[in-house]
Amino acid sequence: MLTMKFNFVTRVRILSLALFVFALLLIGKLYVLQIVDHSVYLDKADRQYTSTQGGLFDRGNIFFENKDGTLVSGATLQSGFTVAINPEILTNPEDVYQKVSAIIPVDHDTFMASAAKKNDPYEEIAKRVDTDSGQKISDLKIPGLQVYKERWRFYPGGATAAQTIGMMGYKGDDFAGRYGLERQYEQTLKRDDGAYVNFFAQMFSNIQVALATSTQEEGDIVTTIEPTVQSVLQDELASTTSKWSSDMTGGIIINPSTGEIYAMGVYPTFDPNNPQAQKNVSVFSNPLVENVYELGSIIKPLTVAAGIDAGVITASSTYDDTGSIVVNGKKISNFDGKARGITTIQDLISQSLNIGAAHVERLLGNQRFTDYFYRFGLSQKTGIDLPNEGRNLVDNLKSPRDVEHVTASFGQGIALTPISAVRALATIANGGVLIQPHVVKRIDYKLGWSKDINPPIGDRVIKPQTAHDLAVLMTYSVDNVLLNGTTKLPNYSVAAKTGTAQIAKAAGGGYSDTEILHSFVGWFPSFNPKFLVFLYTVNPKGVKYGSETLTLPFHSIVQFLVNYYEVPPDR
């Protein structure tokens, strides 16, 4: 009797569990149908009333995020209509043309040439027609005049962060992300809208199919890009390029402690809504991530940091600056060739002295110098969440020759991606640890959950005191030396370093006599900074030094950030 009762209870529990699981499956599937795929089935219903040419294009959104957390669309979908004719059944083309051209602009000769193709059942007359105009044309109800609903990728900000957002393009027969985040997050942004299947038939015939979903990885992207900061950066890049007739100017604004990039851009840029206007396709790529440059003296803080951290110098050390030295038969000189005599590490930074950087490298020794530079991440990619990250050219640091290391100490002879240089310099700004730069803050998945992007902090590279000492040296330069101290902010500490580098000849074999690259890096507040700003301009005309071209743009950006984010004074 007890056994029968036990079996009965067990069966009831199993049945109840089965019903509970089935109910969960049913609820889950209904959630997918009614919430997750709401827009998909809305489109399917809409097709009963409006013609469509194949499936409607669908794709996830990319958002910028304002400082208050509100979202601004960076890439979305726009709806409208394609207007076409069927020449096989169209009668009185001239009359049809007059009626259509009264609603939308249509070239007469093109329309009539299309209408003359009597063996062609489909000729497009206009694409991306707005909804109101498309509906008016549809309401004409003219046989042979067809209106098809369509959707296309739209970038509301135009050129805002264009190289970061990227754009769509064809890869063979597939229309997919080709550049920037559009490419990097293709699997998240793309949408797989399969044919309609009756849910209940699917549920009872194959539960596994009902559970499976192609939407599990689909979502929207929320970036770290702050649109107002991005616009300010882009304005400075454009004005700098124009003022100095540079080939290109680029910049990054980043949180040096978290790796979040608030703004990233280059000029010239492009409008992803109208890419066909560009004659040079290289403008679509992101040189801040993909290209390498010899960046010059902004690398000197890394050399000094290595020397202080290793204990071969202190921030108050002195050395004999002879103006020039010969290493492996190659003459190395200060920018002006002049000797300073007994001088300080502070002057090395403030006056950007190559002989001082070489002195620190010789005290470190080649191997220890190389080890530090590799610890700053210069031998590896940063892992930024953008495609085609370039590889730094630093293999010459494995050379047994002294000259390779000496020239690297002041930023020549090694070529770095700007984002890699930013990460290395952020290590000094944040107190000594590597970060991972990133431009995506969160993924909002279609199924309803979100994933925050918080890359782990990397290894400690230098001691906190070392980083502090460099910040003191670089802050003194801004307060007293950079443009004679005219850009000092009385209530805010700012640490900065300028750079001027020769550009290697394209054909190899030495450096150009006329082309140069200017660079600038700075952060504020100098101690526990919230912002690091990196700028560079390629081949400016009629000017020698980075301090002349980039100091004022940097200063303008800092003043904007102070006011926009209401940064409290630190001194």
Description:
The chain is of the alpha+beta class and 571 residues long. Among the domains are: 2-36; 227-268 and 279-439 and 456-564, 3-Layer(aba) Sandwich (Beta-lactamase), CATH 3.40.710. The protein contains 20 helices and 18 strands. The radius of gyration is 31 Å and the shape is elongated. The termini are far apart.
CATH architecture tag of the domain at 227-268 and 279-439 and 456-564:
3-Layer(aba) Sandwich
Helix content: 25-40%
The count of β-strands is 18
Beta strand %: 15-25%
| Major β-sheet profile | 7 strands, mixed
Quick description:
The protein is built from 20 helices and 18 strands.
Fill in the keyword field for this structure.
571 residues, alpha+beta, 5-stranded antiparallel β-sheet, 37% helix, elongated
Q: Topology, pairings included?
A:
Elements: H1 2-36, H2 38-46, E1 62-65, E2 71-85, H3 93-101, H4 108-115, E3 123-129, H5 131-139, E4 145-154, H6 162-165, E5 168-171, E6 174-177, H7 180-184, H8 186-189, H9 199-205, H10 207-211, E7 219-223, H11 227-244, E8 248-254, E9 261-267, H12 287-290, H13 300-310, E10 318-321, E11 324-327, E12 330-333, E13 341-344, H14 345-350, H15 354-364, H16 366-375, H17 402-409, H18 418-429, E14 440-445, E15 450-452, H19 464-480, E16 495-504, E17 511-524, E18 531-538, H20 546-564
Parallel strand pairs: 1-7
Antiparallel strand pairs: 1-2, 2-3, 2-4, 5-6, 7-14, 8-9, 8-18, 10-13, 11-12, 14-15, 16-17, 17-18
